[in-house]
Amino acid sequence: MITELHSQRLYLRKMKASDSLSMFKIWSDPDVTKFMNISNFTDENEAKDMIQFLNELAQNNKAIRFTIIEKESNHIIGSCGYNSLDFENSKTEIGYDISKTFWGKGYAPEAISSLLDYAFTHLKLNRVEAKVEPANVNSIKVLEKLNFTFVRYSEKERKISWKAYRFKYLFEINKRLILVPLPILNQSVGFFNFCIKFKSLTQSWKKLIKKSEVSLFSHLVAQSCYIQFYKCERTTKLKNK
């Protein structure tokens, strides 16, 4: 399994026990862990245990986590990696976190691009997934920038910690994916554009809209996706006649 990756500004290497203090500073920040599968750490030993756990998964080819280092300063600025590796189904799920000090510099998409390149080119996987909570707007923008496709809205997916149940969106990107960019929400909502698969099933959107647990905001997202998909589907059918 690969132990390091490089991009223009970043160096990604396998996590080391000596990274514990730097990672503790990141993982103890509630603004960073807010949308992660952990509660913010309160002791450096928690970071040590987490690094050991992640490296054990890597040894068994089940997952791998990289420490992200800024080349210019040689500072540890976060972590990213493959949360799960499913070679049988040729897919993986990615995760990432960046120190708040380094937000807004484009480091997240740069790191993820390295993960995508390695997953498709060297691991020979066909699909990369990312699960994001609806409120995590910045992370969704990152995935959108990298041409991830909105797949579905999953409910009550339990976090690894016992923090809470949360709603999540599932995004994915494929090797040979034809994307149809669709405007999802109007300016009054002030959000972003999803890219959805043209082959998405209309029925799935109907079910989503009917879910009573979906918040008003998520309802608008689902409804807009359904309307835009229906228009696109309808136009195509007319052209084919």
UniProtKB/TrEMBL annotation:
GO cellular component entries: cytoplasm
PROSITE patterns (UniProt xref): GNAT
Superkingdom of origin: Bacteria
Gene3D superfamilies assigned to the protein according to its UniProt record, in alphabetical order: 3.40.630.30
Record-annotated N-acetyltransferase domain positions: 10-172
UniProt EC number: 2.3.1.-
GO molecular function, one term: protein-N-terminal-alanine acetyltransferase activity
TM helices/strands, residue ranges: none
Keyword terms of this UniProt record: Acyltransferase, Transferase
Keyword Transferase: yes
PANTHER family xref list: GNAT FAMILY, PUTATIVE (AFU_ORTHOLOGUE AFUA_3G00765)-RELATED-RELATED, RIBOSOMAL-PROTEIN-ALANINE ACETYLTRANSFERASE
Protein name: Ribosomal N-acetyltransferase YdaF
Biological source species: Bacillus thuringiensis T01-328
